[in-house]
Write a structure and sequence with these properties.
two-stranded antiparallel ribbon, 6 strands, binds NADPH dihydro-nicotinamide-adenine-dinucleotide phosphate, mainly alpha, single chain, two-stranded antiparallel sheet, 15 helices
Length: 353
């Protein structure tokens, strides 16, 4: 098979599954021009399991090598690039211009394109997550087959942590409807190419750059520590996102059934100041960076640059995003936001930044 076709085939299979697998319909946070919440079909976890089962069945049947996505990773990434570019042109060019053509191609024109109940952003995140997981599993298979007698347990830990990351992301799909991407971004190259190429191929850059290396014999207590770092990050990130989600749905409800809803209310605006949101104004971003660091360290090559590219990417993405979001919130919440910044002066890292 021409391996550059691999990515478009995965994209097509996920699209069919997203359209065909039974889903629950939920109201999102974003509203249409008439003020009605947009409806979303959510079936990410089922589509994920189905796609993984189909891949595993194809490997067991001998139609596909377990490590094929590693062996053909460059052709596959090339095919993904072409698909990402074609997708960008197809979604941007027919829509009404917003800014210059270059800005529109990069940032997009349509805010929340939906077609026959299928949502472009939900699809993009789903295909990105599934393709990433397939790459992680296949790259891991390559490592295990190559170093069968003495494999790196850090690679297995990395694959397990990434599988957890992707699975829990899809499990909490509904919470993501309340994030910046859905509220503030349009669909263009950044989101389209980002999910079709960058997400599946760059997020696993750690494994991409170390799968061919032998077992570094990382001591077991260190591996436990790296796993723990990942989960501390997860608690901060998931905890903050869930707390905000629950607060937006019902501001009077205790978060997780225990945290009193502490918020600044001025007129109709409500800014959450307690729990995770009292630690720093974007503790969820710190969580994301800690998770990425745990993943990078688990591979056992802390002096190689490759694994660190992933946490560094989060720093480069989330530090400016926090500044943008602060400006957005200051404009939206006015005096309540000023008061919140006084009470919680830390942007991302409590007592540091
Ligand atoms: P947030 O979930 O922090 O959302 C920001 C929005 O939440 C604000 O614009 C505002 O919107 C609302 N908000 C912020 N602070 C408060 C407050 N104190 N009280 C009430 N409302 C508040 O950021 P993102 O959407 O950027 O990120 C969501 C998650 O996704 C994070 O965990 C992030 O790390 C993760 N992420 C993951 C990426 C990945 O590739 N894995 C990439 C980017 C992000 P409003 O009031 O209008 O609702």
């Amino acid at each position: 098979m021409p391996w550059w076709l691999c990515a478009p085939l995965i994209d097509a299979a996920v699209l069919l599954a997203y359209a065909g697998v039974p889903a629950r319909a939920v109201d999102g946070y974003v509203r249409d021009a008439a003020g009605k919440p947009l409806r979303y079909r959510l079936n990410g976890l089922r589509v994920f399991v189905l796609c993984l089962a189909a891949w595993a069945a194809a490997c067991w049947a001998g139609w596909l090598r377990w490590d094929a996505l590693y062996v053909h990773r460059w052709e596959s990434a090339f095919g993904a690039c072409v698909t990402g570019l074609l997708f960008t042109l197809a979604i941007v060019l027919p829509a009404k211009p917003v800014k210059s053509i270059a800005a529109d191609l990069f940032l997009g024109r349509l805010e929340n394109p939906q077609w026959k109940g299928l949502d472009a952003k939900m699809y993009l995140y789903l295909v990105g997550a599934i393709h990433l997981e397939l790459n992680v599993l296949s790259f891991t298979a390559f490592h295990l087959q190559t170093f069968g007698a003495d494999p790196n347990p850090g690679v297995v830990l990395y694959a397990a942590l990434f599988t957890f990351f992707v699975t829990e992301y899809l499990n909490f799909e509904e919470v993501h409807l309340y994030t910046y991407d859905f509220m503030a971004e349009r669909v263009g190259f950044k989101l389209g190419w980002g999910c079709l190429v960058f997400y599946p191929f760059f997020y696993c850059v750690g494994l991409w750059t170390t799968a061919h290396l032998p077992n570094p014999h990382t001591p077991a207590p260190l591996l436990v520590l790296y796993g723990a770092l990942f989960f501390v990050g997860w608690v901060l990130s998931r905890g903050a996102n869930l707390q905000k989600f629950q607060f937006k749905r019902d501001p009077a409800r205790k978060a997780f059934g225990v945290l009193e809803p502490r918020a600044i209310s001025k007129g109709r605006t409500q800014v959450l100041t307690g729990g995770f949101w009292g630690l720093s104004r974007h503790i969820n971003y710190l969580g994301e960076i800690l998770m990425a660091s745990g993943l990078a360290l688990s591979l056992g090559y802390p002096l190689e640059l490759g694994p660190w590219l992933y946490p560094l990417y989060y720093v480069a993405l989330l530090v400016p995003r926090q500044l943008d979001d602060d400006r957005r919130c200051a404009a939206k919440y006015g005096a309540a936001w000023v008061e919140y910044c006084k009470r919680v002066p830390w942007r991302i890292i409590p007592r540091v930044y």
